[in-house]
Design a protein that fits this description.
alpha+beta, Pseudouridine synthase, Archaeosine Trna-guanine Transglycosylase, Chain: A, domain 4, eight-stranded mixed sheet, five-stranded mixed sheet, 7 helices, 17 strands, globular
Length: 302
């Protein structure tokens, strides 16, 4: 039976299962919600699980802010084997003894990775080279030079080293490849290492919000219908909750809706800000501060 697509606005925090691509998960969620427009905010590898924010309707305008936000992961990695992809799905390219690796040694090795770090992106990634994703070249056996990129690791907490497995929690900036981090650690230890399990526990600003698996969504849909799923959606403005808010008068809101910058008070001197109408605290969208304490519209809700 064909159901008409609906205009839905909001954000769903999907708990992605292993063995499915991020786009595959998105299409299933979009079908369950019968949504006209939806997108995800940053791919998780098929082996990875955890938080994948799905933006519906107007929320897709703000997906870039979630793409750019910090991420939190729980990682299980295996010592002794280096793989072509940096994870369990790749071909093993070397095997070495890990008998010398202790919890203390691992802690010492991880310590320099705190703070600002230069990281070379892996060949098995969606980054593009001359219009082609790197993973396509990697599958053809082609390797190209990748420039190192600056990332920031806010915290890196070792949980355990048991036999050939080590586990840790990481809070990092956008663009961090955990597979590359684990591979680098394995090479420093001269034993090799690769990711076995990767779970994204949170995407800022959603550090303490419930997630929903596809199984749960399908059960709600089966028992109560598609409309019942809407109660799981978070408001569009939650995606930018970490940015400072600027209160606009009704007249200023009128001009900014017309695309014109307006002067504001009690605002930061630069960067992005949330635009809010003072009378009813209604979210208008995101603005960007100019040098003269005016704010220009950047992304506006309809």
């Amino acid at each position: 039976m064909h159901f008409p697509k609906k205009n839905i606005n909001g954000i769903l925090l999907l708990d992605k299962s292993p063995g499915i691509t991020s786009n595959g998960a998105l299409q299933q969620v979009k079908r369950l919600f019968q949504a006209k427009r939806a997108g995800h905010t940053g791919s998780l590898d098929p082996i990875a699980t955890g938080m994948l924010p799905i933006c519906f309707g107007e929320a897709t305008k703000f997906s870039q802010f979630l793409l750019d936000s910090d991420k939190y992961y729980y990682v299980t990695a295996r010592l002794g084997k280096r793989t072509a992809t940096g994870d369990v799905e790749g071909e093993v390219i070397s095997e070495r003894s890990f008998a010398h690796v202790t919890q203390e040694k691992m802690g010492q090795t991880l310590r320099p990775f705190h703070g600002k770090v230069e990281q070379v992106p892996p060949m098995f990634s969606a980054l593009k080279y001359k219009g082609k994703p790197l993973y396509e070249l990697a599958r053809q056996g082609i390797e190209v030079v990748r420039e190192p990129r600056s990332i920031h690791i806010h915290s890196l907490e070792l949980e355990s080293v048991q036999e050939d497995l080590f586990r840790f929690h990481i809070h990092c900036s956008k663009g961090t490849y955990v597979r590359t981090l684990v591979d680098d650690v394995g090479e420093i230890l001269n034993c090799g290492a690769h990711v076995v399990e990767l779970r994204r526990s949170a995407v800022a600003p959603y550090t303490s919000c419930p997630m929903y698996t596809l199984t749960v969504l399908e059960e709600i849909h089966r028992q109560e219908g598609a409309d019942a799923l809407h109660r799981l959606l978070l408001p569009v403005e939650t995606s930018v909750a970490g940015f400072p808010g600027v209160i606009l008068s009704t007249s200023a809101a009128f001009y900014i809706r017309m695309g014109q910058p307006v002067r504001v008070t009690n605002a930061p001197s630069q960067g992005f800000v949330r635009l809010i109408i003072g009378d009813d605290q209604r979210f208008l969208g995101m603005g960007e501060m100019l040098e003269d304490y005016r704010v220009k519209p950047k992304r506006m809700v309809v």
